[in-house]
Structure to design on (227 residues):
């Protein structure tokens, strides 16, 4: 059983479209995250939720909207996609927010044409 | 603010060579320090960690020692294998209530050739 699973793994779409990436964790963790990894492998946090409550919201365009229906799920919706949104998006979870021990999904590679 | 600086890659080594990947940090107080590894096509995995000065984290033959005096957490392995080829990320977690944010370095790509 995959601990942190993301879907879809690959996403190719046109500029201006809206898309969603889903994330689920079966580890019973309280905290979930979205990270963006650019083409140079630089990893930047976007959002963090603890028990469905938004904890971290970094400087991210408001075209990006996370949604946590329950503590096992954290979805990412992106409106009006732009070329610069092309990246690999990683979902992660941790048992408690302050441990630094994150469990990552395999990533969702988004390509905007 | 907090920051992590890693040596620039890529690093290419022959099998059984000694590996060092340098990592230094800037933070207030006493952060926890981590090394994560990302194998090709996968997400990051925690490799090792240290939570206080002079702690040594170790796993899978890799080691790193938390040096407060030099604000460093260099990753070492005595004899690398082809299967160690991956991108390695140094990270810190600032201590304190409600600290949820890991700060990552830019990653160092390691290629090990037979």
């Amino acid at each position: 059983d995959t601990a942190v699973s993301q879907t879809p793994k690959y996403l190719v779409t046109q500029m201006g479209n809206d898309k969603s990436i889903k994330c689920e964790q079966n580890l019973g963790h309280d905290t979930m995250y979205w990270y963006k990894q650019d083409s140079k492998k630089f990893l930047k946090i976007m959002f963090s939720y603890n028990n469905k409550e938004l904890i971290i919201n970094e400087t991210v365009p408001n075209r990006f909207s996370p949604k946590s229906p329950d503590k096992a799920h954290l979805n990412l919706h992106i409106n009006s996609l732009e070329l610069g949104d092309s990246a690999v998006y990683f979902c992660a979870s941790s048992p408690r927010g302050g441990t630094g021990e994150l469990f990552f999904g395999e990533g969702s590679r988004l390509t905007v044409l | 603010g907090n920051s992590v600086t890693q040596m620039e890659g890529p690093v290419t080594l022959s099998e059984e060579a000694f590996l060092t990947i340098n990592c230094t940090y800037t933070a207030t107080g006493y952060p926890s320090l981590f090394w994560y590894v990302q194998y090709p096509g996968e997400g990051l995995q925690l490799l090792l960690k240290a939570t206080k000065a002079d702690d040594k984290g170790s796993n899978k033959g890799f080691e790193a020692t938390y040096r407060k005096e030099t604000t460093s957490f260099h990753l070492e392995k005595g004899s690398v294998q082809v299967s160690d080829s991956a991108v390695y990320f140094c990270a810190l977690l600032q201590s304190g209530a409600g600290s949820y944010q890991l700060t990552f370095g830019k990653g160092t790509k390691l290629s090990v050739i037979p």
